[in-house]
Amino acid sequence: MSSITSVSDKQYADSSKLAARARLNSEYMIAEIGWFPWVAQQLPLKSGDRVLDIGCGPGWFWAATAASLPDNLDLTLADLSQGMVQEAVERCTALPFGSVTGRQADAATLPFANDSFDAVIAMHMFYHLPDPFKAIAEMYRVLKPGGFVAVTTNGADNMRKLYELTTAFGSPPYDPAGSAFGFDAAERLMQTQFGNVRITEHPALLRVTKQEDVYLALTSYPPGDEADDTQLAAFRKAIAEAFEAGGGVLETEKETGLFISRKER
Predict the structure, then answer these.
(1) Is residue 76 part of a domain?
(2) Among 45, 48, 115, 237, which has the highest number of CB atoms less than 10 A from its own CB?
């Protein structure tokens, strides 16, 4: 069954479908510090570092955190989708980076020389890959000795109460991303390639107050975006019942983590 983890031109030609899902986190997350600022605080970046972002999407992370990052970063934004690369470069070019370059690229065959970057970032993209081991090997190859790779992903129980609603149109009752490439898989992959990994979890939950935002987010990818009228009616009913049970809100725990490994000198 296709899902959020299935890369397709329709899903990622631009950021419109992604935005419907991102809205849940941007509008309803409850945390001491938001996800993007929290990740930025964890990254051991230094002034002048050459940074590769693989699966950069529309560049939202860099736009949200540019002012708090070290100065003069040389940023390369790479994605399988040329539309995403273009959007990311347009969004980031005017920001206070040393330079911004875009490149359409497959994570399994990166078009960069050995030992090219001080840092390689891969945020919520490994669950899209048919062969994560090829991708992590490529990240290792293009990383300079002493540099670091940072990977983010979801745990298997991420937003469980939300994903339980998607059984109305045939999805399993859990986060497809966390199921495809969760915490255990990320730790094992990076430990195998680097021999070291530091794991940090972002403490947060969602408290959603608008039913329509749940509906739009979970019908922005297969099978929800292909569900028939009967399935969608059942889905709306399930959402309404969940909000009623929660006293007008839907609250669910987040499970999102950051994994950092260093390449030995």
Answers:
(1) yes
(2) 45
The answer to whether the peptide bond before residue 223 is cis (omega within 30 degrees of 0) is: yes
* pLDDT tens per residue, range 87-105: 999 999 999 999 999 999 9
State pLDDT tens for residues 155-175: 999 999 999 999 999 899 999
Separation CA 65–CA 212 (nearest Å): 29
Cβ atoms 236, 215 nearer than 8 A:
yes
Non-local (6+) Cβ contacts of 66 within 8 A are 92, 95, 96, 97
Distance of CA 198 to the CA centre of its chain: 18
- Residue 264 near residue 195 (C-beta atoms within 8 A): yes
Give the Cα separation of 68 and 37 in Å (integer): 8
For residue 205, tell me if it sits in a domain.
yes
Query: How much is the pLDDT for 6?
Result: 54
Domains contained in the chain, number: 1
Q: Which domain holds residue 82?
A: 9-262
Report CA 196 to chain centroid distance, whole Å.
22
CA distances 144 to 81, 90, 114, Å, are 26, 27, 8
The token pair at 95 is 């920001």
150 inside domain? yes
Q: Which two tokens stand for residue 227?
A: 């569900």
